[in-house]
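[job 4471] stage=fold_predict status=RUNNING
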Amino acid sequence: MTDPAEQAPPADEPRSWAGMVERLAEDRENLVEDFLQRLAALGNYTDGMVPDTDLRQSATETFDMLTRRIAGVPLPDHLRDLSTRLGVRRARQGVAREHLLEAVRLDFRVLWAGLVRAGGPGSSQILVLHAEEILTTVEQYISDVQAAFLEERAALERDSRAAAAQAFSRLLNSGSRAAAVASEVAGTLGLPEHGTFDVAFVVPSPEREQRPAARVRERGGGLAWEFDDGVALVRETARTPWPDLPPGTSGGLVARVRGLAAVPASVEAARVLSGYAGTGGGFVREEDVWSAIAHDQLRGLIPGFGRDRVERFERLDGDSRARLLETLTHYAATGSVKATAEALYCHRNTVVNRLQAFRETTGLDLTVPAEAAQALVLFSGR
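[job 4471] inference complete, writing structure tokens
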């Protein structure tokens, strides 16, 4: 009689299809790298039209979604419309249809190779039994991506703004070639190469269905580009305010940007600023949140920056801290004891006493500009 231990599969082999799929999910990073290497070998995405970060993120989401579908696991919200988002984005980026299809068809080969690794020797029979299931899943994804791509490209071709959308995409993804690309696309965009622009990054309210980009297009307010986390808006600097945005919509605004070449970096700056916008809506500018940004940057670069001063301040009771922070904010804005007293509806001696209390507690004299700046950075957002 054969020893049962000799009949059992090796410890490193899955015993079932479910086990193979589980290992496939754990191998996602290798799936992504395999896909990117195969894609690079095709040579279709070397023109810079699609950023490397975009390719990697799309591959990561794609294999996450396909693995979940093969496993029969429900998709999270951010993956349910992946095929539509990918097809639309590639159409706007000007990717050729045949190049898109060649890329997404690689998914089956990468998945199959990943399952072979996951199953190990002797798993071919299990793979054959589930081959149609894998192929159907991938083919459905390819079909959905292609449908979204063709629908968006048809809309762009019908719209006279198609060329401008692709030119704007080129500018946003130009990297170190921003100056050269700005010169090339200025005419297509209908904007002066050396003009002055306002750049915003808008984070839509989750409760609203209409995206801010649609509002801007309707009013002819400039260029708009939708990212996964928000919308970039660019227009020539004007006296009129931005078009009305849905209530609760917030974002970051970089005003008076000089030259088209500076627009891509300004979009990223506006995106950073949008992260500091409150929940009440509206735009924040660099002058509104510079101290909070400086605080976050210094905390990352210099661990423990200002810790002793902050800890001494935190020992005060809540009311005392609130009064001193209120005084810090108003006094730093004006440098005037009189103006601070008027703003806080208190006697000027009260302001002087609070400045003294702040100095005794933190060691920072708010009447000294360098120390006042340090105080604003340390206590921003408290």
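[job 4471] summary: The CA atoms of residues 265 and 346 lie 44 Å apart.
[job 4471] exit 0
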